[in-house]
Prior knowledge:
By secondary structure, this protein is of the alpha/beta class.
Amino acid sequence: MKTFKIVLTGGPCAGKTTALKAIKNHLEEQNIKYITIPETATELILNKMLPNSNYTYEFQTMVLKRQYAKEKEAINYAQKMYEQEEKVVILCDRGIFDNIAYLHSEEEFQKMLKEQQLEEENLLSSYNLVLNLFSLATCNPSYYSFNNEARLENVEEAKEADKKTANAWANHPNIKLLSSSISLQEEQEQIIQMIDSHLSNKDYIYKLKVPMKENKFQRNQSTESIVHTLYFPHPNTSIKIFEKKHIFLMQIVYEKEFEKIIIEQRYINQGTFIQLLKKYPPLSTNIHSEKNFIENQTHYKIYYEDGKIFLDIQPNNLGKIILPNCCQSKQINLDSLYTNQEKLDNINSIKKLWRKN
């Protein structure tokens, strides 16, 4: 039995409650077992345990402790009660990293983790998929509403919370960004399609890889890991394994000109890492520095590779590609990239080869 922990996050009035209902209905139709974890902060607020400016850290500590306990209990329950099932989905209405958006600084969050004896990398790797829904306060402020008793933010506060929430999860390797500029039905259909693709191992992440100006990358503000690059028997494709504090993230990566496609990715244990090193010839081992951030409803990753600085741009659900001013290449001829069918054919051929090996 495999558990998939999926978190729905986003700013106030982002449509998480409605999306959760649609997801649960869909999973029931597919006869897939699931466990839901309701939003912890809302539970506390509705029980009159309210946050205030003098009690923010203590309140968020309560949220973190309860959220961690609920997620741990859900995993244990799934393993005991659904051990005969092929897969079980754990649906989280917000997750542990949402705490960052409501604290005064990232340092406070790190302090909180240390007090609770929790490791950031272990927590991040426990989530299989992150779906970030942008708030109406960001996408369409005139439709922002206060129809939730636990919603305390005005429009400007909601915009700021939206930005902070998205960036709180920016380091997760499998984050999907969903703008609420489209209709609610379209958004729900996209969310369900993303979940179905993930559960059936058919998903991939498409990015543009753009060279950057050297002075825009500050190594002291980045996170570092060791990246092992292994040979893979397909043109322009390699296996990359990112190692950080005994956490291993494996990716099958296709790269050609401005295009980067992460064909498959998952966290692996040390035993699997050693097996891959024996099976696929190592090409290089380097220090990898990167900084992830979200703005313009777009995910960016700045990183240092082979002595050069690059920027990965991951389009949101609207398919928009926004190039920041810091890019050296201001124009990208999108016509030169794959058509959708060519791209899918290439992805499927690499997936088949990976499974065959």
